[in-house]
Amino acid sequence: MEKLLTEHNLIIEVEKLKKIIKDKVEQRFLEFKKLGEEGDELDLYSELCFCILTANWKAKGGIKAQKLITKVGFAEYPEEQLVSLLKKIGHRFPNTRAKYIIENRWIIGDLKSLIQQHYVNARTFLVDKIKGIGWKESSHFLRNTGVEDVAILDKHILKIMKTYHLIEDFPKPGWNKSSYLKLEKILKDFAEKVKEPVGKLDLYLWYFETNSIDK
Question: Are 141 and 199 within 8 A, CB to CB?
Fold first, then answer.
């Protein structure tokens, strides 16, 4: 009979990983904090575009896009050039994402102050005002700029939560604030049991599912 996996089993797995990759996780989070504290507005906008590009795609593709387009390109390239570059790296939605990048440029100049706000207010602002950004993507941006207390509830994390019975089923498509924060609270409660902020826990769980530490 198949073994029923529980929260306790996941605690054991995370504790194993902490012995193996804790230094790498801490180093990656230092990079996040440095970006949030020392990055200029174009650095921050590049990271916001990364989060927009990875939605319904993949983190490694978003990283490739950042390297190819560069922070100046995200801020200045015309739409046609962005579409061409996104097609070059095989993005699933090059036209839509290029349009979002262009239409969101008005936020450049305000990102530094935004990430210094209380994260719930910052996330709500991003979800309401930025094209292509939902609760997962806004959480991803804030975590990648050094905010520890946010959960990135993507398909990998939700799969783990369901497998280990932190949740009974996958949430229905179309997050709203209430449903996102409800599941985030479940993961925060788990994070307390392994003595890690939920933003860092994401890196452990991501490694557990993909065998890599991305961002």
Answer: no
Q: Which residues are known catalytic residues?
A: 136, 154
Q: How far is CA 140 from CA 45, 168, 203, in A?
A: 13, 24, 11
Instruction: Indicate the pTM of the whole model.
Output: 0.94
Of 136, 163, 129, 140, give the one whose Cα is nearest residue 4. Answer: 163
Region of residue 147 (left: phi > 0; alpha: psi -120 to 50; beta: else): beta
Has residue 1 got a pLDDT over 60?
no
Average pLDDT, the chain: 94
Task: Copy the structure tokens of residue 163.
Answer: 């497998």
| Separate counts of helices (H) and strands (E) for the chain | 11, 0
Reduced DSSP (H G I as helix, E B as strand, rest coil) percent helix, strand, coil of the chain, to 5: 70, 0, 30
